[in-house]
Amino acid sequence: MRLLALAVFVLAVSAVGGVILYRNSGQEAAVDGAATVQRIAQGKAIYMDHCASCHGAALEGQANWRSRKPDGRLPAPPHDPSGHTWHHPDQMLFVMTKFGPQATAGPGYESDMPGFEGVLSDQEIIDVLTYIKSTWPEEIQQEQARRTKLSRQNAS
Question: Which of 11, 78, 93, 104 is most buried, judging by how many CB atoms fall within 10 Å of its CB?
Fold first, then answer.
C-alpha cells in the first residue's frame, strides 16, 4: 500500500534514448534526460506560479522543514541540494506531485501539499521537475539519475 498511486496510476517506464515515458489512460508524458532550455524555462514559470509560495522562490523550502508543526504536518521541504528531493527517483517525484505526498507515503499521511492532478498536465509536472533538477550540482544530478535508474530496474 506504500505506493498506492502506482496501483491506481499504471506507470509504464521505458528507458529509450534517455527518455522516460509515463502512461496514464493512454496519455504519455516524456522526461528528456538532456532537458532543453525551453523546458527548464517553462518549468520555472510553472514552479513560480504553483510551488514557490510554499517551497520558496529559491527552492529553499520553509523554515524548520524537518520539524513537525503543531498540527503534526511537516513544513514544505526545500528542493535545492540541502533538501531530500534528489534522494527520490523520478517516478516517485512525479506521482507525489500529481497525486500528493500521501500517494507515496500511504493512506493516512497528512500533508499541506495538494496533488496537482487536474491543475497541471503531466508534461507541466515534468517541466517543473526538470527545472528543479537543473538547479542541482552535476554530482547530485548524477546521483538522482542513478537512483531513478535503480528504481526502474527494481520495478521490472
Answer: 93
